[in-house]
Amino acid sequence: xxxxxxxxxxxxxxxxxxxxxxxxxxxxxxxxxxxxxxxxxxxxxxxxxxxxxxxxxxxxxxxxxxxxxxxxxxxxxxxxxxxxxxxxxxxxxxxxxxxxxxxxxxxxxxxxxxxxxxxxxxxxxxxxxxxxxxxxxxxxxxxxxxxxxxxxxxxxxxxxxxxxxxxxxxxxxxxxxxxxxxxxxxxxxxxxxxxxxxxxxxxxxxxxxxxxxxxxxxxxxxxxxxxxxxxxxxxxxxxxxxxxxxxxxxxxxxxxxxxxxxxxxxxxxxxxxxxxxxxxxxxxxxxxxxxxxxxxxxxxxxxxxxxxxxxxxxxxxxxxxxxxxxxxxxxxxxxxxxxxxxxxxxxxxxxxxxxxxxxxxxxxxxxxxxxxxxxxxxxxxxxxxxxxxxxxxxxxxxxxxxxxxxxxxxxxxxxxxxxxxxxxxxxxxxxxxxxxxxxxxxxxxxxxxxxxxxxxxxxxxxx
Length: 463
Hints:
Layout lengths: L6 E2 L8 E6 L1 H9 L3 H9 L9 E5 L5 E7 L12 H4 L5 E4 L9 H12 L13 E3 L8 H17 L7 H15 L2 E6 L2 H4 L3 H7 L7 E7 L6 E6 L1 E5 L8 H4 L7 H15 L5 E11 L11 E3 L5 E3 L7 H13 L5 E6 L3 H7 L5 E4 L2 H13 L5 E2 L17 E2 L8 H10 L8 E5 L3 E2 L9 E2 L4 H12 L2
């Protein structure tokens, strides 16, 4: 695992500028210990240690001597995320051992790395300031989290022209090769031959063949978990075509796949003692002469018949076959991630992924992990009476219905119909996107609930 460019090597620490962390409560006592010149500088700039503020303080030669950094919460993974892009990039920086406010080095590393991220595949970005730690372990868990987060963001940010079903397949193969796993890919009409009719139906209209991507890794003796991610690489809405505004950011409709692959990479990089199956149904929901149509009935892998009420509710259709396939190998835990509904965003906004879960222990573990990692989710109910919203007169169920109520709940209930009875299952309806720019959360693709998912798995399996 290579060192990201926002971090300096330990041999540079002697010449690094000190970062002194404090909050408003610490500030007065710290200021009184400083030289009159430093105190005058602080007063001239009205620095009082507010969270999110910083001040570069010159030394006697007029060079950067130290940086006073205001921090409200030393456990906030974004508390330092403004610094990499705002501090002068010609310097390396180190955490001062005399900081009034103590912060774990791993938290500082995570916060700095999240703030330094920029998607620069198509445009050159300015250099960022580098953080120098006393000891840098490039194979540490924190670096693995950063690398997985970067993977998720990069996959989502990449336009569909360069991130279609075949490119998602290439990512899975690369991960399998890098970590000693194996990949199995079912492409095009072979999906029909191997009984994945729903995935084929959604993706058949595109010139880029639909596929089911399977990544397997781990020791056969370890508990098996299955992770499924919605891989709709672009969503026009199909024949129920989206508006221009609705289609603008649909390169992100493979955000569930990005999360699944990011979590898979994190599990493998940290050698979590599980046997992992990662499944990505990868399609482009396009429009052509053979697009699947409203009113069609698809006989899915499970044998359930599904009437297509709306071709823009395609994510749940491709996930259905994938969930059934995952259940066939009887994993101990089944997880899925999907940019499934706008209704989840109406209910919870862009930052809170909606968690649906059929097991109280798993739900409690997931929510606790979110609290512990400041990567929170919000549990929503599997309110089964709302299955009536998916009633069909000619099939077992429909993929949508006329009601605009409880959209994320009815979507989760649709998925639950494809989960084997007794299987422990979670579904995360995730936005995968930052609409605006915030420190550590740049506009564009985002990993949401990734740290929580990993912490939950680590707590359950890394005994």
